[in-house]
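Assess the record.
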Amino acid sequence: MDVEGIIQCIRQGDVSGIQTHLQEFNKEYAQCFFFDAEEKERRRLKSNTVSEDSDSDCDERDQRDRGPLLRQSLAAVLLRFIRTGGVRCRLLRVSLRTLRILSRDKNVLGPLVTDASLLTLAKLAGLTANDAIEDSCESESDFFDSIVASLAEVNMLHHSDRNESSSQDEDEEATVFDSSDVSNANSRNRGSDSGLGSHRASINEAHRSTVHKVLERGKRDRRESKMEEEEEGEEEEGEAGKEVQRKEAMKVLCNVVYNSSWAQERFSALRLMGGLIHCLSSSAGCSPPSSVQFYELRLMFLITALQPDLRAQLHQEAGVSILTAALERCLEVQWKDQAECALDPAAPPVSLEASQRTVEILKILFNITYSTHRLEPSEVSGWHDDAALYRHLVAILRLCLMRRCVLAEDTDELQGHAVNLLSALPLQCLDVLLTAPMQPDSHEYHGVNMDCVHTLLMFMERRLDSGDKIKEKLTPILNLLTESCRAHRETRQYIRKHILPPLRDVSQRPEEGSTVKNRLIRLMTHLDTDLKHCAADLLFVLCKENVRRFVKYTGYGNAAGLLATRGLLCRQGGRAFNCDTHYSSDSDSDTEEYRQVKDRINPVTGRVEAEQPDPMEGMTEEEKEEEARKLIMLFNKLSRDNFIQPMGVNKEGKLVPITGLRDNSLIEEEAEDDEDIQEID
C-alpha cells in the first residue's frame, strides 16, 4: 500500500484520491494488527530455517522496515486533515476507520495520544462539545514539508543500509538494524506535543522492523462479519451517518486507551469521563438503543479497569444508578415490586446485542462496587440509600442468572459476570435472591424459593468440568456460595443436601469419584493456594465449621491444610475459635451404613482400609525397641541436615517448630559416637 501516495493526496487536497486510497488501505488491513518482526526473526533463526534472499525479499523487508514511520506519519496527517474541518461525512468515516486500524500498532501511537488528538476524537465521539486545542504552531506547508523530509531521510538510510548489507551473509542480512536503536514508545508518547509526535526524533523508531498478521476474529467479529462492509458501501447521511461516525471514533479511543498508559492518564486530566457518563445516560433512554452504546460501555470498562481515580469518580457521580438503569433497559425488565423482577418462561431469549451490552455493564459495575464487599453498614456513608439501590440491582442480577440467551456460550458468560458482581456486592443485600415467590416448578426448601441457588449450583458444576482457567472460573462462584451459606441457613442446608449428602459408602477415598463432593475435595489439594482454600472453605461452612464433621467428610489428610491455616489441628470436635456465624443446632446424624463401619475407618484417608499384616509380628520386645531407636535417629539426622523440620501443635492449634527435639538429638548423636568407638576398640 502506497502510504506516501495517501499523504501526497491529502497535501494536495485531492478528496477523491484520498477516499479511494484510504478505502484500499482499510480493505487490505481491515483484519490485521502489527507486531515487532524482531521476535519473528528470532523464532526463524532458532528453528534454523534460513531461506535465500532475493531482490524481491529485500524490497519487501525494506518496506516493512519503513512501516512504523509511514503509519505514524499517516496518522499525524489524517488527524491534521480531520481537524481542519469541512471534511464530508463519508470521507470522515473512512478516515476514522483508517485511524482505528493504525491505533492497533503501539509503535505509532505518538500522534494519537496528544491532548489535541484525544480532544478531537472525543468531540467526534460525542464526549465533548469543545473544540480541540491546537497542538502545533506549524503552518500547513511547514507541517507537510517536515513529514516529507522525514520520509526522505528514512529512504536514504534504508538505501544506504541495503548497499552496505549486500556483501554480508544471509544471517547478518536477516538482522539489518540493531535493537538498541529502538526508542521506547511510551516515552515518545509522553514527550510529544506535536501532531506527528516528534517525527524527526522517531526516525530511529523506523528501524524497528514490523510486519502484520491476520487478527483473530472474536465472537463479536464472527457475528457481525459483514457489518463493516455494509457500512462501507452505504452512503449514509444525517443522523445515521453521524452515528456511524461516533462509533468509529469510539473504537479509535478504545484502542488508544487500551494501548497507551499516557492516554489513560490524559483521559482523566482532560475530564472526558463526565462526557462519557452523560453520553451513556442519554443513550440508555433510547429505544431501541443506539449502536454506539456498546462502544461507550466498552470504553467505560477499559478506563475504569485501568484508572482507579476514574473508577471512584464514576461511583460518586451516581454510576451505579445509571448503569443499573441501562441494565434494566437491556433486559427489558418488568417489575412486580421493588425487589422482584417478572420472569416470564415464555419470554424470548436475550438477543446477541443485548447480551453483549449487558456483559459490559456487569463488568463496569464490578469495577466500581467490589470495594463495598464485606463492609458493614456503619462503615459506608449513605448506607440506607445504597442498600436500596444494591437490593434493586441484586433483583436484576437474579434475572440475569435465570434468563437464557440465544447462544449457550452467551448464557454461560452472562451468568459468569453476574456471579462476579454478586460476589462483590454487600452480603446484606443477597437475601433478595431468596425472596421470589414460589412457582409450580420451583425448587423449594423449607418454604423458600431455591431456583436461583439451584442455578448457581448448576453453574458451579459446569465450571468444575471446564479444564482451562479453572482458578478464574471457579473462585468467584465458590466464594459466593460460601458467603451465601454463612449468611442464610436455608441456602446452606439446600446446598449441603446437594453436595454433602449423608455418608453411606465409605469404601473409597473422599476424593475418588465423579460427584460434586469428590471433585471439590480433589481441589483441596490443588497446587493453586487460592483455589484450594476456596474449595475447602465451602465444604467447611457446609459442615457448619465443625472440625470433627469436616474431617469425617473429607478425611484428615485433605482437611489438614485448612485446619493448619486456621489453627484447628488440635480441635477434634466443636467449631472454629473465631467463628462469628451462628449456626443452627441441628445434629449430623450418621446413617446406619456409616455406623456399622465407623470404627474401621482410617481418619486420615476417610475410608475403610483393608486389614494389613502387623510388620512387627514375631519380633521380641528388644527388637521392637531397637527398630524404634533407629527410626528416631534417622529422623534426627534428617532434622540436623535441614531436610525436615520437626513440627508440633501449640495450644492455639497451629503448627510450630519443635525446638527441644534438636537439643535431644545432640545427646543421642554423642551416644552414637561412643558406641562406634567401643566397636573399634
In short: The chain has four domains: 3-220, 271-435, 437-581+590-611, 623-680. DSSP finds 31 helices and ten strands in the chain. The first helix runs from residue 3 to 12. The longest strand covers residues 32-36.
